[in-house]
Specification:
Low-confidence stretches: none
Shape: globular
Radius of gyration: 14 Å
Number of strands: 5
Mean pLDDT: 95
Order of helices and strands: EHHEEEHE
Number of helices: 3
């Protein structure tokens, strides 16, 4: 039975392991960077199977206009069970109806996001990371 939490008491090593197990491209070998990502997030919703972290939604927001979903990751063993959808719904509840929820999709996930309520947009621009 998976349960969810909105407490930001996660350990960087657990999140790094989740990122690696999910297949998401994140710097899972740089724990200090993961720690900074967690510390600076405005909202984190996590999914747990007992004591095991199996999913995360990490977002940056002003809570009144826009929220950027920076990470949505679910352990490969737990994918296709609705966990990502629940993480997004709980994030939406946390940020409220005034906020739009936006993200930049990995190419391999483009078909997934419309299935959980996102609408594709061709109006985004990106200056990529240098590392």
């Amino acid at each position: 039975m998976v349960h969810y939490s909105d407490l930001n008491d996660l350990q960087a090593v657990d999140v790094a392991n989740l990122f690696e197990q999910s297949g998401i491209k994140r710097p899972y070998d740089d724990l200090r960077r993961i720690e900074n990502m967690l510390e600076r997030a405005d909202v984190i919703i996590s999914a747990w199977d007992g004591e095991k972290l199996v999913g995360i939604a990490r977002a940056l927001t002003d809570f009144v206009y826009c929220c950027y979903l920076s990470d949505l990751a679910v352990d490969r063993e737990y994918q296709h069970k609705g966990i990502g959808k629940v993480l997004v719904r709980q994030l939406q509840t946390k940020i409220g109806d005034q906020c739009s929820l936006v993200l930049i999709s990995a190419p391999g996930a483009m078909d997934y996001y419309p299935k959980i309520g996102f609408t594709a947009s061709d109006r985004a621009f990106v200056i990529p990371r240098k590392r």
